[in-house]
Amino acid sequence: MSDACSSEPAGAIRAIDKHSVHQICSGQVVLTLATAVKELVENSIDAGATNIDVKLKECGAEQVEVSDNGKGVEEANFEGLTLKHHTSKLRDFSDLIHVETFGFRGEALSSLCALSVVTCHESSQVGTKLVFDHKGHLVQRSPHPRQQGTTVSLQQLFSTLPVRHKEFQRNIKKEYAKMIHVLQSYCIISTGVRITCSNQNGQGKRSTVLSTSGSQSMRDSIGAIFGPKQLQSLLPFQQVSPTENIIEEYGLQNADLPKQLYSITGFVSRGDHGVGRSATDRQFFFINNRPCDPLKVTKVVNEVYHMYNRHQYPFVALNIAVASECVDVNVTPDKRQIFLQEEKLLLAILKTSLISMYEAGVNKINLNYTPLPTSNSGPTQKTLQSFFKDSVKPSTCSPSMKSPSKPARELTKASPVGRSVLDGFRYGSVSCADTDSEKDSAVSSCDVGVTMTTPEEVIDSSSVKNETFKEASEKSDTVPEDTDLETEAPEAKRARKENPHFPAEQKSSTFSNSFEESSSIVDAPVCLQRRTVPLQFSFQELAGRMRRLREQQKQRAGEELQYRRFRAKINPGDNQSAEEELKKEISKDMFKEMEIIGQFNLGFIITKLNSDIFMIDQHATDEKYNFEMLQQHTVLQGQKLIVPQKLHLTAVSENVLIENIEIFQKNGFEFLVDEDAQVMERVKLVSLPTSKNWTFGPADIEELIFMLSDSPGVMCRPSRVRQMFASRACRKSVMIGTALSVSEMKKLVVHMGQIEHPWNCPHGRPTMRHLANLDIISQD
């Protein structure tokens, strides 16, 4: 009894030991390879380094080493380098507002891997090697030769967390790609700092992944990372004040907006189609030179870009400068998420500036346009002739005009071939509202430029139709409500075509009369005959039909249902069987067990598996089988180039290509690889795949590299190769309308269990449908 009283209750709350606390908290800070490298590179930049060298082994799975030529670590700071809550940046909480450096998570790294540091402070004559345990305590120090600066080495990252370490090893290629993207952001923003990164796999040669020259220009750094081709597509960001419309869109008050709060510099892609990217893989945002992920800013940039290039994404490198008291970077441990004051103002500035930049480059029809003179008496013949000479193509004359008047023939003869009907109209610059608004004025310029062809038709289309509709609507007692004016008055149309609108002497004279006078000659009242159709109706017959309908409904209600949706009852005892009935699935190994019932409509195979009936599209399933066989086994033949072609790949893309060169060879691409050449010039294209009328090129290589970055080592094809295989598979497959024997149908069904994705054809059409389950049909 006393023992029971002295022991703690099972659910007692007690403190976690310090070692576990350290591991838990630190493990929440550094989650990925990218975060670990970020911490080390930021530490070097804080130390004033102008040269940073990142060396990886096995893409970072075995070792990460970062060396710099910064100030180094003073001996007094050796102990606190990796201890929790130790920093040289802060004295109290208020100092957080003015922190402009990155910081260093030494305690996090020491808890996750074997951490060693070799450093030489600017005041020291010799360097020192420091070894730390997983609690962050210094366990070993020894003299070590080194020039000024620091080298931090991480061995076996995440080795102290078995589950995370196993996942890290499994996804190392993806981790590596994300790390490179983060490192690229520091290369872009850290002007004056030379950053290099290299990787060594096994005992192979160390290959450079990326390298910058330490230029003071962001543009030069972008060129060093992504090559000169990327620079050709960039526009320097030009900041302008937000317009009133956009200020109103974001719900801002113009009078209350702070001036000069944000200053934005950087580069974005041009809006031309073809110069953008197929994904958002080259978008970098910075707040006060700190790489970050501002989601709303990213969304605005892409939305504006899609207004001008809807099928691609831009390259973006934008640095947003703002007062330190207006930004909070301590939102997440990796400091990638940031809170901003007046964020809507920033979005308004971005949107206005980008629209202004892209509008300046949009091609427009910029032709001189003089509006038609308008007066109460209408335009003269000379005015109309001069307008039509400039705007009417020969092909725009109406074919229904069998004998056009002399002015019309002259117009057609004088108009230059190739002039557009749109001449004189600039997109968005002329509207019907800009012309004379009086009822008796000339037809608006919009109508003339788009729909008019001859002077006679000007009056015919503008006056006759409108007046006819007006009179018809006023005389509603002579026109049935459901009558279509265009279809109910063919004689009115015929009269307008057969009878000339003007006497002969009027055609040769000028149009001195107003449109109102001309309309009075043409617009004769149209009399429409009302037609009466008798309808046979009998209340007795209607009552009889209603009576029979009610009897049929009663009869149906009294009959029992001929089938049940489910055999399982709704009661606790049948829960298991009900769940089994609802959880029915089909797997690929079931296809060989299916029984062939027959062929339906010379296009579908009806099969039975236990009590389930399926319908299989014979063409779609054979097409998918043939497609996957082509995908797996076809080696495209290459066509040798006369001269090897430079590809201008980035260092990262170049490495992806070299590591997956067998996959490129299966797709018909052959390369000449020179390991000793300069980075971004190690690979040259020597052979391109060709197949009948299909040709492929560098764009397909870039697409393959993009796919292999996410799935390294996986056999994949460019989208255009897939299209070619899909076309060939379609042509060689069993067609709809072909009669099949039982053995032929069985062969097609068995094939479905032998391919990777049997559920849809290459074009997305389903290959099969479940028709019914025989058990739910009543046996009565």
From TrEMBL:
Compositional bias segments (type: Basic and acidic residues): 467-478, 490-500
Cellular localization per UniProt: Nucleus
Domain of life the protein comes from: Eukaryota
SMART domains, sorted: DNA_mis_repair (SM01340), MutL_C (SM00853)
Single biological process term from Gene Ontology: mismatch repair
NCBIfam families: mutl
Name of the molecule in the record: Mismatch repair endonuclease PMS2
Source organism per UniProt: Amphiprion ocellaris
